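Structure ticket #2291
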Amino acid sequence: MSGKESVPELQISQTITKHLQKSRFSGKYADFKILVGSKVFPTHRFILGNKSTYFRDLIHNNTNKDTPELCDHSEYSADAVGVCLEYIYTDRLEFESHNAPAVLRVAHHWNLRYVVTKCERLLKTSITSSNCIKTRALATKLGLAELGECANMAILGNFEMVTKAKDLIILSVDDMKSIKDTAMEKASVRIKDLWALFYTWHKRQNKAGPHILCECLHIFPFDQFTVTGFKEQIWKNEHVSNCEKCQEVAVRALLSTFDEPRKDDDILFLKKLAKKYDFSTLNEITRRHIVENHLFIFTNHDMEELDNDDLMECINDIEDMCTPGEFTAIVKWMVKSEKRQDIFPQIFKFVEDPAYAPHNVFLSSICGFFGLSEPTAAEVASSTSSEQYWWPKYCLFLKKLAGKYDCSVTEKFVDQCIVGGFAEVCEDIGFLELSASDLITYLSSKSTYSCRESQIWRAIMCWIRHHESRRESFPAIFDSLKLEEFTTGFLRSNILINALVMDSKASVFSVMREILRRLEILESEHAETKKNLHSKSNRKHKK
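Resolution: structure written out below.
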């Protein structure tokens, strides 16, 4: 029997591991220390260098006399460092799942590939709405693409919770770019939700300054927006509206792949963008689209986007202008800016020049618009306003412009409209700006008196009280009144006792004459009735 005995390799390995662990905890033969805050981990260069390329480079490749004896890892968790040292010395890897991110950071730094793989696998299966942001940031920092993709999917699937999360601020521009890429390639998300996430993230970056959102905007997929969605979500955004660079980047991204506008697109806004940023082909496409669909566009879109040249360019190409609905939209557009009123004569060439309206289509539409005639079914269908065709303030506005630009035909029609709708016109504040001659003209028309007598009289008094100098015009205004249209009771209890009337003998005499005229008529009618009764009685007596 030989004196030599073979010892199993497993036993040798376990014995070595046991002694290594013992010496690590005791610090015996330790020649290297890892410092984590106030805690010191005594270790052995030989062991660290054989298991970790990080330590091999740090220790064994440094053969000069300055070879370090201590490594400060205070930025890491002491528990995570302990787990990784346990693995280096024993090949055992044990840690709680909540500690996986901390262990992963240390393992990645020390280049412990097995530990990194285990941690990444565990994190992939445990991503939730509450930890997906931190996981995304960690994946970016450590360059773990697959883990980042999993975090992106979790973020995109929990928009509401993620946008409310306080730790959203820890994400970088690179993180946001990665989330965007995943959204475009793998996830079915609404573009407005993605924008809400980006903008909420930006607002949390106040200390970093506005350039942060600029960076985000420059990578955002604006071409995924509809024109209307772009206008509401991006163009009206507080930052974008004040940053010309971001406006240009966003618009060029939106329009670079744009082909033909759809019916529900905000075509007027689209034309504005195409013109401003010199998309000449698209500018022509939108102009042609407006001309071909002018009825729908002028009555269903906000004309604020048009400037004077745009509007005239389109109107000049429209042969069948103009329905009441379109006319309403154009007048509303002019009311809001004095600069726009410069094109009033050009627009009203359709009224003033018979060559543009050979069948008086436009004149008829104006009458229908102002309630002088019954609108057709097509005109009703073209109007989207619940206020239908009566706009007293626009009557007064058009009256002013027609006079300013000597559009006599238009002024004549507007005067008819004002008379026909005097009840509504006199309630508008613009009524107080009428001249005395205009008021006299309207009061001289019998059509004016279709409204209540009290309303007419109150309107006259309000007009006079608006300016002290107007008291001088009262006699002429009173003379224009058709007193025969007022009831006797109103003449006696309201007009005759009015201070302005009482101060004017001529006015008092006018009222008294009208009352006396009515009394004479009553007496005449009474005498005639009495005579008829007497004649009837005589005939009966003779029989």
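Closing remark: Strands lie at 32-36, 39-43, 70-72.
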